Each structure stands twice: as C-alpha cells, then as structure tokens.
Amino acid sequence: MAHRFSFKTPKKVGLKPEWFPIFVILLLGFFLRFYRVRDYIVFLGDEGRDALVVYNILHGDLTLLGPTSSVGGFFLGPIYYYLMTPFMFLSRYDPIGPAIMVVLFGVATIFLVYKMGREFFNPLAGIIAAFLYAISPVVVTYSRSSWNPNVFPFFTISTLYVLYKAVVENKISLFILTGFLMGLNLQIHYLATFV
Fold first, then answer.
1. Angle, to 10 degrees, between the axis of helix 19-34 and the axis of helix 123-135?
2. Of the N and C termini of the chain, which has fewer Cβ atoms inside 10 Å?
3. Which of 76, 105, 65 is nearest to 185 (CA)?
4. Are the C-beta atoms of 135 and 179 separated by less than 8 Å?
5. How many helices and strands in the chain, by DSSP H and E?
6. Cα–Cα dist 101/145, whole Å
C-alpha cells in the first residue's frame, strides 16, 4: 500500500502586494520634500512671529492665542505653536525644525490619500492618488516650510477619514475622535469651517 504524503503550502506571511508601491511613493514623497529643505525654506514675517511665540513657550510663557487670521479681526487656536514646540526645541531654535515637522505631516498626508483612495475605490486608485499627491509641485512646495496652513491637508483628510470610519463602524469613540480632530483642524485654519 502506497503511503501518500501531503505537503501543505506554507501560508505566506508578509505585506499585501500594493504595500511595495506605496512604500516607494512615500519614500519619493519624503525625498522631494526633504531634499535641500534648508535651501528652499521660507522664513518671512509669519514664520518669524511663530518662531518667537514658540521660543517664549519653551521659556515658560504659554499662550492660548494662535496666529491672527489673514482676514483679520480674530485669532486661531494655539495648537500649531504647540506642534512646533518639540521641533524647535530639538533643532535648538533653528527654523529647519518646524520645516521638518511640516515635511513629516506632508508624508503622512500622502499615506492618508492612499488610504482614502483604497477604501473608497480600490488599491490602484489609492496608489495613483498618492503618487499624484506625492509629486504635485504645489503640494511639495508647501510641504517644505513651516506655516500653519501647510498642515491643513493632513488634519482635513484625517478628520474626514475618521468620520467615514465612525459612520461605517458606528463607533462612538470614532465620533469623539472626529470631533477632536475637527477641533484641531479649526485651530489650524479657519477654512476648516467649510469642512
């Protein structure tokens, strides 16, 4: 009597096939934003004001007021200053620190664009959307210097994504997180009122 051996194919452990392209896109996005960031950094009046406020925060003078709005007459919340604080501290008050923070938010936004495209359509749509966002010259330019509107896309997309997940999964914790993210977004820029 012949004895049969059955060989089971080992279960593949690893990442899904679309993870390699998105990893490459994230690296490309990081490179485009970080390459020669010091040479292309913008440091004008708004950036100087923000740096001085963060300098004061690091020396114990906390604030509840953020930047003045460009339409005048009111202040935004201070969250952008507090986001800048660890980067200013680590860079020893060099304006490159907050610029690197914006680079990191820009790369995280690329990933969020991928996630939304993947969930709303399919993995290929997510990859294409992330690639286009990663190489967009306007987006790259605004992802290289510290200015509160430059992190607005990250907070807007993350708010909408978490709201979508909250509705789909009907989880109260996600609705609370949506409200928290929306609160941060309103402090980043008044345009969040349209979100």
1. 10
2. N
3. 76
4. no
5. 9, 0
6. 9
pTM of the model: 0.84
Lowest-confidence range among 15-24, 57-66, 150-159? 15-24
For residue range 101-141, what is the model confidence (pLDDT) as tens digits? 999 999 999 999 999 999 999 999 999 999 999 999 999 99
The residue type found at 78 is: P
Listing DSSP states for 134-160 in one string gives: HH-HHHHHHTSS--GGGGHHHHHHHHH
Closest by CA position to 109, among listed 134, 136, 137, 144: 134
Model pLDDT for residues 41-98, shown as the tens digit of each residue? 887 777 888 889 999 999 999 988 888 777 777 888 899 999 999 999 999 988 899 9
CB 43 within 8 A of CB 95: yes
Polymer length in residues for the chain: 195
